[in-house]
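Dear all,

This email documents one entry for the complex benchmark we are building for the journal club exercise. For each entry we list the sequence lines for every component of the assembly. Then comes the predicted three-dimensional structure of the complex as a token string, followed by one or two observations. Please use this as the template for your own entries, and keep the labels exactly as they appear.
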Amino acid sequence: MSEDRTKKEICVELPQVPKAGGSYAVVKLFGGKFLYASGCGPILDDQTWKGRLSEEYTTDEGYRAAANCIRNMLAAIQAEIGDLGKIRSFVKLLVFVAGPADYGQQSQVANGATDLLLELFGDPCGRPARSAIGVSSLPNHIPVEVEALVELEEQD
Amino acid sequence: MSEDRTKKEICVELPQVPKAGGSYAVVKLFGGKFLYASGCGPILDDQTWKGRLSEEYTTDEGYRAAANCIRNMLAAIQAEIGDLGKIRSFVKLLVFVAGPADYGQQSQVANGATDLLLELFGDPCGRPARSAIGVSSLPNHIPVEVEALVELEEQD
Amino acid sequence: MSEDRTKKEICVELPQVPKAGGSYAVVKLFGGKFLYASGCGPILDDQTWKGRLSEEYTTDEGYRAAANCIRNMLAAIQAEIGDLGKIRSFVKLLVFVAGPADYGQQSQVANGATDLLLELFGDPCGRPARSAIGVSSLPNHIPVEVEALVELEEQD
């Protein structure tokens, strides 16, 4: 199964490793077998993502933004641990969706993140617990931000 | 004490187990002795909960909504682990309260969640760390959402 | 290094231990070697902090508010564990910044928290993973709130 996952990992085209937007670590290892991935945004390559759901972006676009957040996160995790096959399980995602008071499709947006994890890592590894919430705004006006708690395989 | 908690558990009337509103797990076990409960909303049975605090709902109603979130969460946890007596401690709650910029009673709303945990599980098991925040909106326009990190008793 | 950290700790002037604003624990130990610090606000001594970023407060003031949140949190952690030298690592910060839809400087505000941790605890101990988000409002209208997951040194 670990082998299988390693193969799948090869199918993921990962973007450049995102840089921290401040005095923090994009990925922090802890407790010998866990890591926390900081809130990652949706910007890949030279894309511009500025705006809120139901204003500048549709829910479908938000879904793609959430998937982008995961791509950035996986690039950061791979840079830290060397091999995504070491991931035992995505434990918990927190998905922040910028939008106005009358926007209620945060779950559909967040599915962009967890659908991709399920496709890449399978069930149950790629099916975390999750909260999706609507926030007034995010750093640099990105529409979506995703953070994750991840459990790693035990080291031998 | 564990026996005592099991008895108390019998006094909780749990609602139907809530279904995940997307591609995630409502409860995710990890690290051999922890679980994360996804953001749970306040809808029990055929109730309607749509709106924000200080608009459609008073702080007292928000308090009851937060308690409902915990009832749903406990139903989901029991479905996953079989027995709420296996819970060693509620570690951390994150309570999201939908409301406008001038609403500041998020702590009072969140007490609806932690007061119920204290009543059911006692102190310190039912007294977690907690953050309560005001958000612009939540999935499907629910007024309150609660997620939790929970520590379980060690398995023999 | 542990010694060094203990010395540094002496250089921190800690405020009074903050009281919980509801039925929760300001600091909750768990898993034998972790703690969660509840969302801490910026109020030290008799200061007033009421308002939102880009309205009542500039980003520089928000930066100082975030540092205050950490001072309050460290006071609470020290009261719980007795010695800040027992902290192995700040794992993850979640920084809530109250502001309007068009505010996008949450990362700069959050740097007020992590810059102080880096100054006091060094790298990598004081460099956690971090998410910074813009929320509509916070309890009692404080502008910034910070929660933290912390790993402790193993007990002998």
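Observations: The helical segments of chain B are 2-10, 59-81, 106-121. The first strand of chain B starts at residue 27 and ends at 30.
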